[in-house]
UniProtKB/TrEMBL annotation, chain A:
UniProt protein name: Na+/H+ antiporter subunit C
GO CC terms: plasma membrane
Subcellular location: Cell membrane
UniProt keyword terms in alphabetical order: Cell membrane, Membrane, Transmembrane, Transmembrane helix
Regions that span the bilayer: 6-21, 28-46, 75-95
UniProtKB/TrEMBL annotation, chain B:
Pfam families: MnhB
Hydrolase keyword on record: no
UniProt record similarity statement: Belongs to the CPA3 antiporters (TC 2.A.63) subunit B family.
Family annotation (NCBIfam families): PRK12509.1
Positions of transmembrane segments: 12-29, 35-55, 67-87, 112-134
Ranges of residues in domain Na+/H+ antiporter MnhB subunit-related protein: 5-127
Protein name per its UniProtKB record: Na+/H+ antiporter subunit B
Keyword Aminoacyl-tRNA synthetase included in the entry's annotation: no
UniProt keyword terms in alphabetical order: Cell membrane, Membrane, Transmembrane, Transmembrane helix
First-listed, main subcellular location of the protein, grouped into a coarse class: membrane
GO cellular component: plasma membrane
InterPro entries found in the cross-reference section: CPA3_antiporter_subunitB, MnhB
Protein location: Cell membrane
Organism (species): Gillisia hiemivivida
From TrEMBL, chain C:
Full protein name: Putative monovalent cation/H+ antiporter subunit A
Spans through the membrane: 6-22, 29-54, 74-95, 107-124, 161-182, 202-226, 268-289, 296-314, 320-344, 365-387, 407-426, 447-468, 498-517, 560-579, 594-613, 620-639, 645-667, 679-699, 738-756
Compartments in which it is found: Cell membrane; Membrane
Domain MrpA C-terminal/MbhD: 603-668
Domain NADH:quinone oxidoreductase/Mrp antiporter transmembrane intervals: 124-401
Protein's membrane topology: Multi-pass membrane protein
Domain NADH-Ubiquinone oxidoreductase (complex I) chain 5 N-terminal: from-to ranges: 61-108
The MrpA C-terminal/MbhE domain, residue ranges: 680-757
Coiled-coil residue spans: none
GO biological process, one term: monoatomic ion transport
InterPro entries: CPA3_Na-H_Antiporter_A (IPR050616), MrpA_C/MbhD (IPR025383), MrpA_C/MbhE (IPR046806), ND/Mrp_TM (IPR001750), Proton_antipo_N (IPR001516)
MF annotations from Gene Ontology: antiporter activity
Record keywords, A-Z: Antiport, Cell membrane, Ion transport, Membrane, Transmembrane, Transmembrane helix, Transport
Length: 118, 136, 767
C-alpha cells in the first residue's frame, strides 16, 4: 500500500483539480470533495504511516511503548475531515443560492458576482 | 419514501442512535470515539428521521434547535476552559477528580466537558445544515 | 481596582437588558457606577496624598510576561478622579441630553466600555495591559464619534479618528515592546527604574520616538491634530468626556508616566517643546476664527493639549507641577464648557455664534456656569485656572535657555484663549444681536446641574487650593520623583508671573473686542486647504482607495478557473524550484510486504476517481464519490487510525443525505464542447497530480523525527488520564486549536443559515 498511496494521492489531486476547472456547478462541488480526500490522505501519508498499530494505550499499560501510529496528524485530520465537510456544505449552499439568483449553471457566466464594477 | 417498515425502523432507531452516540462520546477518552464521532452519529439519527418525516415534525417531536446546540456547545467548551482559571491554572488546563473512576468514562475532569461541547457543536452544525436545506 | 474596571465592562455587557428595564433612566442608573468608583478612589485619597501607593496584581498570561498589574499613585489617582467624577456628571447629563437620539442603548454601551478601559489605562502597571486598554479607548471612541452613523460626516470623522489613533497605537505598541525587551520586564514601575539598562540595550531612543508618536496621535498634537475637531460630530456628552477631559489626555498621561525614563535624554525635550508649541499656537489661533461653538472648544482643547505637551517638554520641576495643575484645571472648565455648549445647542437649536446673543436673561443658570468656566479658562482670579496660569508662567520664566521665546509663545496662546473665552461668554450671553427664530428657555435642572457643579468646584479649588495640593504634589512626584514640594496658593505677591497674567488678560480682552467688533473681517479669514494637514490625510485615503480598487479589478476578475489556475501554477513552480535538487525516487515494491487487497483497494479507488471525473450522470458520479470516500476510510483503518475511519464513514453518510437534499434540484451536467481548452486543463491537472505524487515520494523517503509523537505517547495517560491518544490531543493537549475549529464550524453553520434564510423573504424562523 505504501507504494500505491502516492499514486492514489496524485490521481485524486488531478481528478479534483480537473473537475474544478469545469464550467458546471455540480462538477465544481464534486471536485472540491475529491480535493478534500486527496488533502487528508496527503497529510496522513507524509507524516508516515504505520500498519495496524492505532495509538491506543492498552488497558494494562500507562504508556505507548512499541510501534504505534503518530497520533498528532490523526488529530489534525480528524478535525480537517469535519471542518472540510462544514466548508464543503457552505460551498454547496453558496453555489445553490448563486444558481438560484443568477439562473445559470455556467461558471464562466457568473463573473459579475465577484468583480468590482468600475 | 413511503415505506412503512422504513418509517417504523427509523422511529425505533433514533433512541438507539442517541444512546450509542452518547456511549461513543463518553468512551472517547480511552477508546475510539469522542465528541466529533458522537456528534456525527447523533446528527445522523435525526437526519434520517428528517428525511422521512420532514423538519417540522422532527422539531416538534424532539424539540431540537440546532443553533442552540451550537451555542451550548461553544459555551460548554469555553466553560471547561474557564474552570481551571479559578484553580489558578491557565485557560483550558485539564483538571481531574483523581479518586473516582467511572466505567466507560474513566476519570471525570474538565476535558470531558470540552468533549461534550464538541459533541453538541458538531451535532448542531450538521442538523442546522440538514434542516436548512430541507426547508429550502 | 480590577473589580471596578470589570464592573464597568460587565455593565456594558448587561446594558441591553438594563436598558429595557430602566429605559429613559438608564443614564441616571449608570451614573451610580462612576459615582461609586469616585467614592472608592476618595477613600484612598489620604493614603496616596501621604505618599502611599496601592497595588494589585493578577496573572493573565504569565508565560508572556503579561499580567493585570494595577498601581494607584498620585498621577493615576488624579486621572481616576477625573474619569469617575466627570464620568458621573456626563452620564447624568447624557440621560437627559440623549433623549433626542434613537438607540441610546448603543451609546451607553460604548460609553461604559470607554469608561472602564480609560480607568484601566490610567491604573495599569503593565505595558501590555496598558496597551490593550489604550486600544479599547480608541475603539469605543470610534463608535461614539460615529454614533449618528446615518450621517456621512459622522462616519468619516469616526474613521479618521480611528485610523489616526489606531495607527499611532501601532507605533506605541512597537515602542512599548522595545522598552520591555530592553528593560527585560513588562512592569511599568520597574521599567522606569531601569533607564540605564534600556539605554545599554540601544532601544531607548527608538522606543522613545515610537511612544511619542503614539501619544501625539492620541492627544491630537500637530500634525495629527485634525481628527479632534472632526470628532465634534459626536454627541456633545462624548465631546465633553472623551475629547476634552479624558481620552485625549491619555497621550499626555503616558508622556507624563514615561517622563522619569525619558526626561533629559535625547530629543525628548526638544520634540515635545517644539511640537507642543506648534500645536498650542495653531490651536489657539484657529479657535478664535471659528463660528461653531463646539469647534471653538475643540481648537482650544487642541491648544491646551499642546500646552501640556510643551510643559512636559520643558521638564523642569515647576513645569511638571504646572502640567499636573493644568490637567485638573482644564478638565474642569473645558468639560463644563462642552456640556454647556450642548445645552445651548439643545435649547436654541444652533451652535453658530453668529446667530447667538442676549441669552443671559433667558438662560441665567447656564449663563452663570459658562461665565465661571470661561473666567477659569481665561485665567482670572480667584478661579483655579488662574493658579494654573501663574504656574505656567513661572515655569517658562524659570527656563535656562529659550526662556523669552517660550514665554512669548505662552503669552500669545494665553491672549488668544482669553479672547476665545470672551467670545464664549460675552458674545453668546450679552451680545447685542440675536438671530434666533424661536425664544429659548432655560434648560432642565438635570442638564445644568453637572456643569454648574464643575464651575463651583473651579471656584472652590481656586480659593482654597490647599485641599487639592497634596494630591497634585504626589502626582507631580510620580512624573518627577525628585521634585520639590508643590504648594498652591492664590496670592504669591506682586511678581513677574502676576504681571504677565494681568497683561494676558488685558491684551486678551482687547483681542476679544477686536474680534467682537469686526465679525465680517473674522468671517472672511479662510485657512487654505494647502496648509491643512487634514487634506494630506484626505488625499492619502483617497489614493489608497483608488490603488486598491485598481488592484482588485486586476486580480479579482471573477473567473474561478483563473483563480485556481494561478494558485496551482504558482504552487507548482515554487515546488519545482525546491524539488529540482532531489533525484526521482526509485519505486521498489517490497514483495514481503505485499498484500493483495491493498492493491485491489488502491486500484478500485483510482478507477472510481477516474470514472467519477468522466461520468456523464450526476447519480453515477456521486455513487463513485462514495466509493472513493469509503476507500479512504479503509486506508485509515489499515494504518491504525480508527477514529479517522469512523469519522470518514459518518461524513460519507451525511454527504449522501446532503446530496439527496440538494443536488437533485440542481441542473444536469453541462456538456461543453471546447475540447482544446478541456485538453489544456486536463494536462495541467495531470501535471499537478504528478507533482503531488512526486512530493509524497520524496518526503516519505526520509525518516521522520517527531518529538511530539514520543511526548504524547508518554504523557497521554500520565498527564491527561486518557488512553485514546488522538482524543486526548483533541480535547486536552491541543484543545485551544480544537476550540478554534469549533468556532469555524459554528460560523459555517450560521453562514449557511443566513445564506438560505435571509436570501429572499427576509422572514426568519427560529431554528
Amino acid at each position: 500500500m505504501e507504494d500505491i498511496l502516492p499514486f492514489l494521492i496524485g490521481c485524486l489531486y488531478a481528478g479534483g483539480i480537473y473537475l474544478i476547472f469545469h464550467r458546471s456547478f455540480v462538477k465544481l462541488i464534486i471536485g472540491l470533495i475529491i480535493l478534500g480526500y486527496a488533502s487528508n490522505l496527503f497529510l496522513f501519508t507524509i507524516s508516515r504511516i504505520t500498519r495496524d498499530a492505532p495509538p491506543l494505550i492498552p488497558d494494562d499499560a500507562t504508556q505507548l511503548t512499541e510501534t504505534f501510529a503518530d497520533p498528532l496528524p490523526q488529530a489534525l485530520i480528524l478535525t480537517a475531515i469535519v471542518i472540510g465537510f462544514g466548508l464543503q456544505a457552505f460551498a454547496i449552499v453558496l453555489i445553490k443560492v448563486g444558481f438560484k439568483t443568477l439562473k445559470t449553471d455556467d461558471l464562466d457566466k457568473t463573473t459579475s458576482t465577484d468583480r468590482l464594477d468600475n | 419514501m413511503n415505506s412503512t417498515i422504513l418509517s417504523m425502523g427509523i422511529k425505533l432507531l433514533v433512541p438507539l442512535f442517541v444512546i450509542f452516540s452518547l456511549f461513543l462520546l463518553f468512551r472517547g477518552h480511552n477508546a475510539p470515539g469522542g465528541g466529533f464521532v458522537g456528534g456525527l452519529v447523533f446528527s445522523i439519527a435525526f437526519s434520517l428521521y428528517t428525511l422521512n418525516y420532514g423538519v417540522k415534525r422532527t422539531k416538534e417531536k424532539y424539540k431540537i434547535r440546532p443553533l442552540k446546540l451550537i451555542a451550548w456547545g461553544l459555551l460548554m467548551a469555553v466553560l471547561s476552559g474557564l474552570i481551571p482559571l479559578f484553580a489558578g491554572e491557565s485557560f483550558l488546563t485539564g483538571l481531574w477528580h483523581d479518586e473516582i473512576t467511572i466505567p466507560v468514562l474513566g476519570k471525570p475532569g474538565t476535558p470531558i466537558l470540552f468533549d461534550i461541547g464538541v459533541y453538541l457543536l458538531v451535532a448542531g452544525t450538521i442538523l442546522s445544515l440538514i434542516f436548512t436545506l430541507w426547508e429550502e | 481596582m480590577l473589580t471596578t474596571i470589570l464592573i464597568g465592562f460587565l455593565l456594558a455587557v448587561l446594558l441591553p437588558w438594563l436598558y429595557k428595564f430602566f429605559k429613559a433612566n438608564t443614564g441616571r442608573f449608570l451614573a451610580v457606577f462612576p459615582a461609586a468608583a469616585f467614592v472608592w478612589f476618595a477613600t484612598k485619597h489620604n493614603q496616596i496624598a501621604a505618599g502611599g501607593i496601592v497595588k494589585e496584581a493578577y496573572n493573565w498570561m504569565p508565560g508572556l510576561g503579561v499580567s493585570l498589574d494595577f498601581k494607584l499613585d498620585g498621577l493615576s489617582l488624579l486621572f481616576a478622579f477625573l474619569i469617575s467624577g466627570i464620568g458621573a456628571i456626563v452620564l447624568l447629563y447624557a440621560g437627559t441630553y440623549m433623549k433626542a437620539y434613537e438607540k441610546t442603548d448603543r451609546f451607553f454601551v460604548a460609553l461604559m466600555i470607554f469608561m472602564a478601559s480609560m480607568l484601566g489605562l490610567v491604573l495599569s502597571d503593565n505595558i501590555i495591559s496598558l496597551f490593550v486598554f489604550w486600544e479599547l479607548t480608541s475603539f469605543s471612541s470610534y463608535f461614539l464619534i460615529g454614533f449618528s452613523h446615518e450621517k456621512e460626516e459622522s462616519r468619516g470623522a469616526a474613521l479618521k479618528a480611528l485610523l489616526i489613533t489606531a495607527g499611532g497605537g501601532l507605533a506605541l505598541l512597537a515602542g512599548l515592546i522595545l522598552l520591555g525587551i530592553g528593560g527585560e520586564t513588562n512592569t511599568i514601575s520597574e521599567l522606569l527604574m531601569r533607564g540605564d539598562q534600556i539605554a545599554d540595550s540601544g532601544f531607548l531612543h527608538v522606543a522613545m520616538m515610537l511612544i511619542i508618536v503614539g501619544c501625539f496621535t492620541k492627544s491630537a498634537q500637530f500634525p495629527f491634530h485634525f481628527w479632534l475637531p472632526a470628532a465634534m460630530a459626536a454627541p456633545t456628552p462624548v465631546s465633553a468626556y472623551l475629547h476634552s477631559a479624558t481620552m485625549v489626555k491619555a497621550g499626555i498621561y503616558l508622556l507624563a508616566r514615561m517622563s522619569p525614563l525619558f526626561n533629559g535624554t535625547g530629543n525628548w525635550n526638544t520634540t515635545l517643546l517644539v511640537v507642543g508649541g506648534i500645536t498650542m499656537l495653531m490651536g489657539a489661533s484657529t479657535a478664535v476664527i471659528q463660528s461653531d461653538l463646539k469647534k471653538i472648544l475643540a481648537y482650544t482643547t487642541v491648544s491646551a493639549l499642546g500646552l501640556l505637551t510643551m510643559l512636559l517638554g520643558i521638564g523642569t520641576e515647576i513645569a511638571i507641577q504646572a502640567a499636573v495643575v493644568f490637567i485638573l484645571a482644564h478638565a474642569l472648565y473645558k468639560g463644563a464648557l462642552f456640556l454647556l455648549a450642548g445645552i445651548i445647542d439643545h435649547q436654541t437649536g444652533t451652535r453658530n455664534i453668529r446667530k447667538l446673543g442676549k441669552l443671559f436673561k433667558k438662560m441665567p443658570y447656564t449663563g452663570t456656569a459658562v461665565i465661571i468656566a470661561s473666567l477659569s479658562m481665561a485665567g482670572i482670579p480667584p478661579l483655579f485656572g488662574f493658579i494654573s496660569k501663574e504656574l505656567i508662567y513661572a515655569s517658562t520664566i524659570d527656563m535656562v535657555i529659550n526662556s523669552p521665546l517660550t514665554t512669548s509663545a505662552f503669552f500669545i496662546a494665553g491672549v488668544l484663549i482669553t479672547a476665545a473665552a470672551g467670545i464664549l461668554s460675552y458674545k453668546v450671553f450679552f451680545g447685542k444681536r440675536n438671530k434666533l427664530e424661536s425664544q429659548p428657555t432655560e434648560a432642565p435642572f438635570s442638564l445644568v446641574a453637572g456643569p454648574l457643579l464643575m464651575a463651583v468646584i473651579a471656584v472652590t479649588l481656586g480659593i482654597s487650593s490647599r485641599f487639592i495640593s497634596p494630591l497634585l504634589n504626589q502626582a507631580s512626584l510620580a512624573v518627577m520623583p525628585e521634585n520639590i514640594e508643590l504648594q498652591l496658593s492664590l496670592w504669591h505677591g506682586i511678581n513677574t508671573e502676576l504681571i504677565m497674567s494681568m497683561a494676558t488678560i488685558f491684551i486678551g480682552y482687547l483681542t476679544f473686542l477686536f474680534i467682537y467688533l469686526n465679525p465680517k473681517f473674522i468671517a472672511s479669514i479662510k485657512v487654505s486647504d494647502k496648509i491643512k494637514t487634514s487634506s494630506v490625510y484626505d488625499r492619502t485615503i483617497s489614493t489608497v482607495v483608488e490603488i486598491s480598487k485598481r488592484v482588485t479589478i486586476i486580480i479579482q476578475n471573477g473567473n474561478l478557473r483563473i483563480y485556481v489556475f494561478v494558485l496551482i501554477a504558482v504552487f507548482s513552480l515554487l515546488s519545482l524550484w525546491v524539488l529540482k535538487d532531489f533525484s526521482v525516487p526509485s519505486i521498489s515494491i517490497l514483495w514481503s510486504d505485499f498484500r493483495i487487497y491493498d492493491i485491489v483497494i488502491g486500484l478500485i479507488m483510482i478507477a472510481a476517481c477516474f470514472y467519477a471525473v468522466m461520468a456523464k450522470s450526476r447519480l453515477l458520479a456521486i455513487a463513485l464519490l462514495g466509493v472513493v470516500g469509503y476507500g479512504v476510510a479503509f486506508i485509515f483503518i489499515m494504518f491504525g487510525a480508527p477514529d479517522l475511519a469512523i469519522t470518514q464513514i459518518l461524513i460519507e453518510t451525511i454527504t449522501v443525505v446532503i446530496f439527496v437534499l440538494v443536488l437533485w434540484k440542481l441542473p444536469k451536467f453541462l456538456i461543453f464542447t471546447e475540447s482544446f481548452i478541456k485538453f489544456r486543463y486536463f494536462m495541467i491537472s495531470i501535471v499537478f497530480g504528478g507533482l503531488m505524487t512526486w512530493i509524497v515520494m520524496i518526503v516519505t523517503q526520509y525518516p521522520l523525527e517527531s518529538h511530539l509523537k514520543a511526548y504524547f505517547a508518554e504523557n497521554s495517560y500520565l498527564l491527561a488520564k486518557g488512553k485514546n491518544v488522538v482524543n486526548v490531543i483533541l480535547v486536552d493537549f491541543r484543545s485551544l486549536d480544537t476550540l478554534g475549529e469549533m468556532v469555524v464550524l459554528g460560523i459555517a453553520a450560521i453562514g449557511i443559515y443566513a445564506l438560505v434564510k435571509f436570501n429572499k423573504t427576509g422572514k426568519k424562523e427560529e431554528l
